[in-house]
Amino acid sequence: MTKFQENATVVYTTPDGRRIDTFVVYATNEKTGLTLINHESLMVTADSLTLHPKTVGHYHMPLNDAFSFELINKLKAKYADMDTQPKTVKLSRKQEKVTLPVLAKAS
Predict the structure, then answer these.
(1) With CB atoms counted within 10 Å of each terminal CB, which end of the chain scores lower, N or C?
(2) Are the beta carbons of 62 and 69 closer than 8 angstroms?
(3) Per residue in 49-76, pLDDT tens?
(4) Which domain of life does the UniProt lineage start with (predicted)?
(5) CB-based burial of residue 82 (10 Å sphere; 0-12 exposed, 13-18 middle, 19+ buried)?
(6) CB burial class (10 A; 0-12, 13-18, 19+) of residue 107?
């Protein structure tokens, strides 16, 4: 019985032979050996699942290489940090008294 790591990305093969990817493993039941995936919350056998081809170690790599993956993670962290900074605009006081120039004398 193959046990997949939690949050691993897998390809699910349906009983009729269709391959559907990509799903995240939520948990594997120790007693039944069934694995819960996020496709219709199905409990499936381990033989109907294979690790996604882009899986490196225990994690799915959405990019072509590890360098790109790390670069994206650093950018995400940078912009997440920027998003947490308060965004305030300094307001200036409006002129309280409006003065209009006299254009002509009324007759």
Answers:
(1) C
(2) yes
(3) 888 877 766 666 666 666 666 777 787 8
(4) Bacteria
(5) exposed
(6) exposed
